Amino acid sequence: MPETQDPHVTQPSATKFVYDFTEGNKELKDLLGGKGANLAEMTNLGLPVPPGFTITTEACKVYLDSGTEPAALRAEVSQHLDALEQKMGKKLGQADDPLLVSVRSGAKFSMPGMMDTVLNIGLSDASVSGLAAQAGDERFAWDSYRRLIQMFGKTVLGVDGELFEEALEEAKQAKGVRVDIDLDAADLQTLVAQFKDIVAKETGRDFPQEPREQMDLAVRAVFDSWNTDRAKLYRRQERIPGDLGTAVNVCSMVFGNLGPDSGTGVAFTRDPASGHQGVYGDYLQNAQGEDVVAGIRNTVPLADLENIDKASYDELMQIMETLETHYKDLCDIEFTIERGKLWMLQTRVGKRTAGAAFRIATQLVDQGLIDEAEALQRVNGAQLAQLMFPRFDLGAKSEMIGRGIAASPGAAVGKAVFDSYTAVKWSRSGEKVILIRRETNPDDLNGMIAAEGILTSRGGKTSHAAVVARGMGKTCVCGAEELEVDTKARRMTTPEGTVIEEGDVVSIDGSSGKVYIGEVPVVPSPVVEYFEGRMHAGAEDADELVKAVHRIMAYADRVRRLRVRANADNAEDAGRARRFGAQGIGLCRTEHMFLGERREMVEHLILADNETDRDAALSQLLPLQKADFIELFESMDGLPVTVRLLDPPLHEFLPDITELSVRVALAEARKDANENDLRLLQAVHKLHEQNPMLGLRGVRLGLVIPGLFAMQVRAIAEAAAERKNAKGDPRAEIMIPLVGTVQELEIVREEAEQVIAEVEKAHGVSLKLTLGTMIELPRAALTAGQIAESADFFSFGTNDLTQTVWGFSRDDVEASFFTAYLEKGIFGVSPFETIDKDGVGSLVRNAAAAGRATRPDLKLGVCGEHGGDPESVHFFHEAGLDYVSCSPFRIPVARLEAGRAAAESKGSDSR
After folding, report:
1. 275 labelled binding-site residue
2. Which of 149, 423, 495, 863 shows its CA 20 to 30 Å from the CA of 413?
3. What are the tens digits of pLDDT across the range 616-656?
4. Would you tell me the crossing angle of helices 891-910 and 540-559 to the nearest 10 degrees?
5. Residue 595, CA distances (Å) to 18, 601, 805 in order
6. What does the pLDDT average to over 881-896?
7. Is 798 marked within a binding site?
8. Which residues does the Swiss-Prot or TrEMBL record annotate as the active site (predicted)?
């Protein structure tokens, strides 16, 4: 159905690059970015939003593509600036009563701290005195001016931010104070002069005094910040497209640094860490917004605002309720109080932890704000996977050394590192690390990604570290004030004097905020225990979480079309998979049954040079294989079990050619060469392949070694017959691997059907075994219509299909050049992690369609690891497959995503 448009909703114009806050709405995020769209929405709701306008993402795209702003942009900005000046009754940067504005980024998807913001645009040597007179506060004016030079110098002019920080620290030390607010007007006036000198020395030009030039340069800097290294890294991490661009919001300034009756804060309508309802957030008196997010001063809890300014607190609580009801979700709000007047600076759907996501989704259903289908869309498989990670064993012996704010849950253990470079370096060497900082900033993103968890001594739940960590699902403890962090000396000191040096192991608990020295043991997650069948295991709050997971999983199972099977090769894995909700086994790799002591039997089979020796080797293997299958069929009784016949290349069952050659050479030198080793070396040389993954394996092996596949089919059939005669319900499916042409399948099928018939006759049963193939070669996908003539089912082996389509050897390329490909943007994500929809995906779609055109009842599944990848599951749903198969641990994730795919598809169909 065509999508209808609300006549009351402003529609975007193809030629319009600037929108007043009164013109937009929350539906225009593509054009106005998330921040601009939501500022417009709050304006439309009648909330106290400072007037302003938004420059669109389209303008940014033109700038990024051409290197210059659209020709019409300057005139549009001038028009909206004139309107803003008339509304405010003052002009930008005028000397006696200056209008000041902020210039802030705002992409469609939240990228906290990754792009640039500049506050107090319009201040200059000429207007700072006018601002002081207007506010009746000289200190405030000079504080605002030094902030402008500092932010502008760093973000617009490219000056090293450390130079400003060092000058600020020197000023505080000279004054004998610890925090910025203890510097007086004279101190700040001196600091402004120092900051201007830094700008002139580092850039070769004076700090710009013309207000419009400041604004235009700041807008351009925000556009440029879309393509900074940190922004691109964050987008790759969060899988945000790189071609969206950012909007720019120009907003009239309101000031939280006007004294004790002013301040700034961040609020959440629910706790983003737990999902519980209440008053959550941070407030900082006499400060501007960047002070809260940067974590450079420790805040007070939002609840304290009730005692500081009850009128503003009450109004804020009412607005928070309005916004949550309007957005029907957890809202993240930025606000400023200017001399007792509350102003709303931003709202967005807040980032939350995995546990909070599940709790909030079910809470909103109970409140009647959303239905179950929407609740299912509010969570995802990545969050569910996070909830399945182990937690600290609180009953184990441990030494707590400090406690901070529980900013993002989880149990993280690693070696202490004190800068991002070391975190990345050690992580690449296989070390698990905890990144410890006084506070993080956007430049720490690399280290935050590499670390197991983040610990800061400053900041709260709304600091940069907390917000980014929650978004990435990283464990984080913030504001551990009692721990003294010295990044230059690379150490952390406890109040008792214990020193943690770089390399010492620490453990942080993002659920309690506790910090431990040494490694704390972990216990299974209560969510895993729920999937294992123990519903109410764990702490009291875990019970609430488990119930939320249970409700959403139950709905996902009701609506999903895709069935979910397991990749399992033994009864133990099969049993666990079934408890996790598997609806059968989609891939049993029989080669895993030939390891250990059986490897020698396979070696004898491969090296047999006469029928007698070969039959003897097969006779040894048959009962062992049969016993394996009996256990599997018992574990999965009543559910399908897809058994893949032997697939790996021969070299995996033979001695290493180099080791064997050395052994024989040494024996010959000693003149005591073993005849068997000489014969073995000759055979290994004969069978040696330069590229064994493209050599004698899969169906080729079954055709070249007489009796091999027949033995496996007989073992499957006899196990099924015995299980059936024992009143069981075995549902075996036999899968022939690496087929490239229908003729291969026809030959193996004919042999298999003959063996099955013999077993049925011998045991007096009808087995109804099905025979199918893996589609893992491009030729198989391209000739799927022919292959379907001899196949009861297809199972797409997307690991090998990805290798053969791309020409990649998975074992080699991921370690060699994938990192460079990801950094250069060639890949958004590894094609082995998420299916390549354009290449591999096209073959899957075409093969599925061609196979079903030949055989409409053809069963279609996938058994590569893509079967457990959330994004790939959605693709397989769209492609019309019947099931996905994945490792047991990923089954709940696949179930959830299959439900989400179905609900999303149904929602699209109804629009």
Report:
1. no
2. 495
3. 888 888 998 899 999 999 999 999 999 999 887 766 666 66
4. 50
5. 67, 10, 30
6. 93
7. yes
8. 464, 863
How confident is the model over 79-92, as a mean pLDDT?
Answer: 95
Strand partners, 640: 731
> 53 - beta bridge partners?
20, 250
- DSSP reduced 3-state for 195: helix
589 annotated as ligand-binding? yes
**Are the C-beta atoms of residues 300 and 284 closer than 8 Å to each other?**
yes
CB 38 within 8 A of CB 346: yes
Question: Going edge to edge, which strands form the sheet with 52-55?
Answer: 18-20, 52-55, 246-252, 101-107, 117-121
pLDDT category of residue 183 using cuts at 50, 70 and 90? very high
The domain covering 560-649+689-905 belongs, at the CATH homologous superfamily level, to Phosphoenolpyruvate-binding domains (3.20.20.60)
Q: What pLDDT shows up at residue 815?
A: 60
The Cα 420–Cα 430 span in angstroms is 15
More confident residue, 88 or 541: 88
pTM: 0.80
Phi, psi for 684 (deg, rounded to 5): -65, -40
Q: How far is CA 27 from CA 6, 12, 38, 352, 745, in A?
A: 11, 10, 9, 22, 54
Of 798, 778, 777, which Cα lies nearest the Cα of 885? 798
* Full DSSP string of 780-841: HHHTHHHHGGG-SEEEE-HHHHHHHHHT--HHHHHHHTHHHHHHTTS-SS-TTTS--TTTHH
pLDDT score for 8: 42
Cβ-contact 634, 726 below 8 angstroms: no
527: amino acid identity, one letter:
V
Exposure string for 321-331, b = 16+ CB within 10 A, e = fewer? ebbbebbebbb
Say how many residues make up the chain.
911
Residue 908 has pLDDT above 70, yes or no: no
Over residues 799-823, the pLDDT tens digits come to 899 999 999 877 677 667 877 887 7
Neighbouring CB atoms inside 10 A of 676's CB total 9
Active site residues: 464, 863
* pLDDT per residue as tens digits for the range 657-676: 777 777 777 777 777 767 77
Domain boundaries, the chain: 18-252, 263-352, 391-523, 560-649+689-905
- Equal fold, 263-352 vs 391-523: no
Can you name the CATH fold of 263-352? D-amino Acid Aminotransferase; Chain A, domain 1 (3.30.470)
734 three-state secondary structure: strand
Output the pLDDT for position 217: 96
Distance, CA of 802 to CA of 840 (rounded, Å): 6
Residue type, position 375, single letter: A
Q: At 406, phi and psi to the nearest 5?
A: -75, 95
Q: Copy the structure tokens of residue 640.
A: 């399908």
Give residues with Cβ within 8 angstroms of 248, minimum separation 6. Answer: 54, 55, 59, 60, 103, 104, 105, 106, 219, 222, 223
Pairing of the two strands 101-107 and 246-252:
antiparallel
Q: Which CATH class is domain 391-523?
A: alpha beta
User: What distance in Å separates the CA atoms of residue 515 and residue 570, rounded to the nearest whole number?
Assistant: 40
Q: Is 800 annotated as a binding residue?
A: yes
HSE, CB side, 13 Å, CA atoms: give it for residue 38: 23
Query: According to the annotation, is 741 in a ligand binding site?
Result: no
User: β-strand 563-567 against 883-886: which pairing, if any?
Assistant: parallel
Judged against a pLDDT cut of 50, whether residue 578 lies above it is answered with: yes
Q: Left (φ > 0), alpha (ψ -120 to 50) or beta: where does 47 sit?
A: beta
